[in-house]
Amino acid sequence: MTLSASLVAHVFDSSIELEQEGSILTLWLNRPDSRNAMSLNMVKAIQQVFQVIEQDLSIRAVILRGKGGHFCAGGDIKDMAQLRGEAMNLGSHQPYVDFNRQFGHMIQQVDQAPQTVVAVLEGAVLGGGFGLACVSDIAISLADAKFGLPETGLGVIPAQIAPFVVKRIGLTQARRLALLGSRFEGHTALKVGVVHEVVENEKALEVLLVETIQQIKRTAPQASRMTKALLHRTLNEPLTALLDDAAQQFAQAVGGEEGMEGTMAFIQKREPNWFDR
């Protein structure tokens, strides 16, 4: 598909692939031989994409998917081995710190992205991949996808993803899953709140993705961005001040171009003018 000029102007690592269809950008994790395990290059490439599109109002949604039948199997063990050598040479743990924190910056960037982020989950959804699923706005999954937080079984910790997992599924479930390190499938992921919908086969997954994209297109672009930002603020700001500011934003929205178009479309029983964008 044709990419926007802002994306064409940047060169991305081959560990990801981009496809754009109108206002919908699909970001494919593209290391199928390693079940799309996240290398440092992949992490940086994802950051680069989200940085480029942050102010791009023409891109309304980002679809996160994995090539080869897997979403993401977590961090790349080969990178860990290389870091071990660097740490030994330096006599310092700093290479581990820098690598781990880089992933944290990336997942925070995806979490705060103004676009609607949809995760399409199949195959391995483990460790860092599990964390990435937890910062999506909408997560849809195959029933036989394999979820888990395997870090403790490997002698490490889910350092950067832990806060996002807790926000997604709550502390009690996060404690159970992280401390047991157990694997589970799509219906359990739905039950604990990691995903929103589960289907039984790939054909149904594609149909559900199309339906999800159509629903995203029915929402007003600027109103969606403002709503996502407002929802994030509810976790961190005093309620009264937040509601005061939200009332001001509501007034601006009602009197703005989208608010007037949405009202007229409703009265005239037609789709709003942003639907085909």
Automatic annotation (TrEMBL):
Biological-process GO terms, alphabetical: isoprenoid catabolic process
GO MF terms, alphabetically ordered: catalytic activity
Cleavable signal peptide: none
InterPro entries for this protein: ClpP/crotonase-like_dom_sf (IPR029045), Enoyl-CoA_hydra/iso (IPR001753), Enoyl-CoA_hydra_C (IPR014748), Enoyl-CoA_Hydratase/Isomerase (IPR051683)
Pfam hit, one: ECH_1
Family: Belongs to the enoyl-CoA hydratase/isomerase family.
Name listed for the protein in its UniProt record: Enoyl-CoA hydratase
Organism: Acinetobacter bereziniae LMG 1003 = CIP 70.12
